[in-house]
C-alpha cells in the first residue's frame, strides 16, 4: 500500500487530505519536475534521460513538465525533449499548450489562476520584513526591483530578461500569477511555516528550491495540475508516474499511483512518495522510466514492488518526520482507460 498525505506541519500546514491511488500498469502519463529532477545546476538533460523519454513517447506515453518555473522558461527543456503535451508552470497556476516548433509566441492559455493584487502586495511587504527579497511573476513576465544586484543571475536561470521596476508594490495593479521571495538557505524554509499561518486561506505557500519561497492563489498546487492533466487525457491517476524533489512536489507525488521522490528530497517529501529514484547524477529519471515504463509488463510489476519495498525500508531507517501523518488508500480504477479520479 502506498503512503498518502493527511497533513504536514511546518511547510505544509493546512494541506488537504490526499488519498493516494493504487498503482496501475502500464504507465500512461509521466509528469516531471525540472530543477533538481530533470536537470541540475548545469541545466543539462542527460543523454540517457533524453533517450528514455523518447522511447516512452514512441510507446504512446504522454510526458509533461510540471514546474514552478514560468512556462516560457520551461519550453526550452520541452523542445529539447520534443514534447507536445501541455506545460504546467508556477506550481500549476498557469498551464499552456506546447507552442509550435517554429513559434516564438507562448502556447495557447489553458488554465490561469492568479493571486489577488491585495494579497500579492501584502506578501511583498511581509516577506521583506522576514529578510527575503520578493519578485513578481505574471503570465510570461518576471518583474524585479530595478536595483536588484542578482538580476543577471535570475536571467540566466529563467532564460529570459526580467522587467525592472522602481517600486515593486506599486507595480501590482491587478492580480498576478505568483510572488517568489528569495533568500539564502535555510531562511526560505524557516519562514515557510509562519507564511502559511499568515496567509492561510488567501495564498498557497511552498518551497520550490532551497532559495525560493513561493506564493500562489488558494487551491493552486502541482497536485491540482496533475489531476487536471490526467482528467484531460482520460487517464486514471494510478497510471501516472510523477517525479520531483522539493516541497512543491508533495501534492503531485501523493496524488498519483507512481510517485517518485529524488533522493535529495526532504524526508517529508520522500514520506509521501511510493518510490525513491536514483540520484540525478545517475540520471534517476531515466532509470525510473526504464524500470516502470520501458520494461516488459512482468518486469515493470516486479520493479514497482521492489522499488516500493526499497523506499519503505528507507523510510523505516529514518525517524518519521515530525508532523507528518500517513495512511494508505486505494482507487477503484484497475486499468488504464478507467475513469480518472
What this model shows, in words?
There is one protein chain. This protein is an alpha/beta fold and 341 residues long. The chain folds into 2 domains: 4-110 and 221-327, Rossmann fold (3-Layer(aba) Sandwich), CATH 3.40.50.1000; 117-216, Hypothetical Protein, Haloacid Dehalogenase-like Hydrolase, Chain: A, domain 2 (2-Layer Sandwich). Helix content is 32%, strand content 20%. It contains 10 helices and 16 strands. Helix 1 runs parallel beside helix 9 and helix 9 crosses helix 10 (297-317).
Secondary structural class? alpha/beta
Based on Cα principal axes, name the global outline: globular
CATH topology of the largest domain: Rossmann fold
What is the CATH superfamily of the largest domain?
A: HAD superfamily/HAD-like
Number of strands: 16
The CATH architecture designation of the largest domain is 3-Layer(aba) Sandwich
C-alpha termini separation? 18 Å
Order of SSEs, N→C?
A: EEHEHEEEHEEHEEHEEHEHEHEHHE
Instruction: Describe the largest sheet.
Output: 6 strands, mixed
Supply the number of structural domains. Answer: 2
User: Which residue ranges are poorly predicted, with pLDDT under 50 across at least 5 consecutive positions?
Assistant: 1-14, 321-341
Strand order of the largest sheet: 9-8-7-10-12-11
Radius of gyration from the alpha-carbon trace, in angstroms: 19 Å
Query: Which band does the percent of strand residues land in?
Result: 15-25%
Oligomer: single chain
In DSSP terms (H or I, runs of 4 or more residues), the helix count works out at: 10
CATH class of the largest domain: Alpha Beta
Q: Helix content range of the residues, please?
A: 25-40%
Mean pLDDT: 88
Amino acid at each position: 500500500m502506498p503512503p498518502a498525505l493527511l497533513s504536514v506541519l511546518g511547510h505544509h500546514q493546512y494541506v488537504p487530505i490526499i488519498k493516494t491511488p493504487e498503482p496501475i500498469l502500464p504507465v500512461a502519463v509521466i509528469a516531471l519536475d525540472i530543477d533538481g529532477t530533470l536537470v541540475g545546476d548545469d541545466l543539462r538533460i542527460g543523454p540517457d534521460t533524453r533517450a528514455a523519454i523518447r522511447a516512452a513517447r514512441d510507446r504512446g506515453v504522454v510526458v509533461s513538465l510540471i514546474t514552478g518555473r514560468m512556462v516560457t522558461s520551461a519550453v526550452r527543456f520541452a523542445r529539447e525533449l520534443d514534447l507536445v503535451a501541455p506545460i504546467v508552470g508556477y506550481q500549476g497556476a498557469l498551464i499552456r499548450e506546447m507552442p509550435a516548433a517554429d513559434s516564438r509566441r507562448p502556447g495557447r492559455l489553458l488554465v490561469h489562476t492568479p493571486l489577488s493584487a491585495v494579497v500579492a502586495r501584502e506578501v511583498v511587504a511581509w516577506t521583506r520584513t522576514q529578510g527575503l527579497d520578493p519578485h513578481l511573476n505574471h503570465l510570461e513576465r518576471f518583474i524585479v526591483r530595478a536595483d536588484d544586484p542578482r538580476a543577471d543571475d535570475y536571467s540566466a536561470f529563467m532564460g529570459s530578461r526580467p522587467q525592472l521596476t522602481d517600486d515593486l508594490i506599486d507595480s501590482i495593479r491587478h492580480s498576478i500569477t505568483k510572488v517568489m521571495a528569495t533568500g539564502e538557505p535555510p531562511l526560505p524554509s524557516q519562514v515557510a511555516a509562519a507564511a502559511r499561518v499568515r496567509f492561510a486561506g488567501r495564498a498557497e505557500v511552498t518551497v520550490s528550491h532551497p532559495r525560493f519561497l513561493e506564493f500562489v492563489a488558494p487551491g493552486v498546487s502541482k497536485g491540482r495540475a496533475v489531476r487536471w492533466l490526467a482528467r484531460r487525457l482520460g487517464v486514471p491517476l494510478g497510471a501516472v508516474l510523477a517525479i520531483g524533489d522539493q516541497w512543491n512536489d508533495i501534492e503531485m507525488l501523493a496524488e498519483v499511483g507512481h510517485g517518485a521522490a529524488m533522493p535529495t528530497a526532504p524526508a517529508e517529501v520522500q514520506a509521501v512518495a511510493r518510490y525513491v529514484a536514483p540520484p540525478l547524477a545517475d540520471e534517476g529519471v531515466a532509470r525510473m522510466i526504464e524500470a516502470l515504463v520501458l520494461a516488459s509488463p512482468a518486469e515493470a510489476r516486479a520493479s514497482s514492488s521492489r522499488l516500493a519495498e526499497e523506499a519503505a525500508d528507507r523510510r523505516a531507517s529514518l525517524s518519521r518526520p515530525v508532523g507528518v501523518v500517513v495512511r494508505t488508500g486505494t482507487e477503484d480504477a484497475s486499468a488504464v482507460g478507467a475513469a480518472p479520479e
